[in-house]
Write the structure tokens for this entry.
Amino acid sequence: MRFLLVLLCAMALPSAGARALELQGAARVIDGDTLEIAGEVVRLHGIDAPEDAQRCGTIACGAEASKALGRLVRGAVVTCRGETRDAYGRLIAVCEAGGTEINEGLVAAGLARAFLRYSDAYAAAEASARAAGRGFWRAGFPAPWEFRANAWRAAAEAAPFRDCPIKGNISANGRIYHTPHSRWYEHTRIDTRRGERWFCTEAEALEAGWRPARG
């Protein structure tokens, strides 16, 4: 599918140095709240979906969240609009597919949490999903940010270099880094003799030329 990349505003924002953008085209799912369109990685604004390795009770909610997002965007022209970027250069955006807003739809279905640390835009949608026991709320739906913090803390204590738990792996797919909350973290072994590395931050890994694991 042919992609359209439209610059809506040429003025750089003083806080993030980003341009206001509209991205439109087919989307590839990276995880439950992240897409890629025309080579741009998009983080869905105001929501936080379970991490790939996360479970909600007996539900593999991380994997299920990615599948649910995949169903929403499959075969659709996805439009994302945003004007700020996060620390990793991802566009923070509100996206829609088939006339339905994806961000709100995921929260309303109980497949993502409202990320109140950054926005209260979807607080009402979360309250409704929680009250109705929709989606992962039927299993209690532990907060993804708490899952990440706990996974990071445990991995940081066990890493060969304390507080540097990110695994920089080299494979046929290139140089890929795995955070403690990613799906393949526990299965990844690091051999420094092959040039593989441990990183303390994602920014450090990105600067060194590694890319994040996908799915």
